[in-house]
Write a structure and sequence with these properties.
By secondary structure, the protein is α/β, with parallel strands linked by helices. The chain is built from seven helices and twelve strands. It has a single domain, classed as Purple Acid Phosphatase, chain A, domain 2 (4-Layer Sandwich). The strands form three sheets. A five-stranded mixed β-sheet has the order 1-7-8-9-10. The protein has a five-stranded mixed β-sheet with strand order 4-3-2-11-12, with helices on both faces. The chain starts with 5 loop residues before the first strand and ends with a strand.
Length: 231
């Protein structure tokens, strides 16, 4: 059984706790959003998975994450189903791997015939979920019926789950994975719902109500947005 990776993260002494999800290879949009929120080394930035695939520059997104971590920024990278697809591709044939990467617009993650080892190491070290004093952060959700905190498949692929106050210690859960209209996201944030999805389908720039990359400030209960700007 592949190892479950999770961590408890204390609130930073001075900085903010910021969450971004489902960047999907939109490196320019990601860069502009970070500039907009003026990320500092005192902040914690949580990336809820699916940072790669579908968009034009998955490699540049990962390069930015790696560079931020190397410079001492508190960047925590969680695993989504798209990270898992790339990790699983190492067990495929060369031909199968290239077909998978081509279909996901992620050929730029390859170095020759294999996934760039630097990227592979980053993905391998990604977390399945993170807990803080008042939040759970996960890409898709949890299996609330059984094996809640060990069911990795649910964490990567869940679409619907019921919130259980006792099970989740009355903490809010922040997820991505399933694109939602901006208005719906903003309503859930303003009403302080227990489960909040912050995936506004950045890559779905032709879909009404979507096409923004969001950054959610956990402490201020506020969302910043950057419109898709890869073209």
């Amino acid at each position: 059984m592949k190892k479950l990776r999770f961590v408890y993260v204390e609130k930073p002494p001075k900085g903010r706790r910021l969450v971004i999800s489902d960047i999907h290879g939109c490196s320019r949009t990601f860069k502009k959003l970070l500039e907009k929120v003026e990320l500092t080394k005192e902040d914690q930035l949580f990336i809820l998975g699916d940072a790669i695939n579908k968009g034009p520059n998955s490699n540049k997104v990962l390069n930015r994450i790696i560079n931020l971590q190397a410079k001492g920024f508190g960047v925590f990278y969680l695993r989504g189903n798209h990270e898992q697809i790339i990790l699983n591709s190492k067990n495929k044939t060369v031909g199968q791997r290239k077909r998978i990467m081509k279909s996901l617009k992620a050929l730029n993650l390859l170095e020759g015939k294999v996934v760039n080892p630097i990227y592979l190491e980053l993905l391998k070290n990604s977390y399945h979920f993170i807990e803080t004093e008042n939040y759970f952060l996960v890409h898709a959700g949890f299996n609330e019926k059984e094996n809640t905190f060990i069911d990795k498949k649910a964490m990567l692929q869940s679409r619907n789950f019921e919130y259980n106050k006792a099970l989740f210690k009355n903490k809010k859960i922040i997820i991505g994975h399933t694109p939602q209209d901006l208005e719906k996201i903003q309503k859930k944030i303003s009403k302080e719902k227990r489960v909040i999805c912050i995936d506004n389908g950045c890559i779905n720039f032709n879909t009404e109500g979507q096409g923004n990359l969001l950054c959610f400030n956990l402490d201020k209960n506020k969302v910043h947005r950057q419109k898709y700007c890869e073209q």
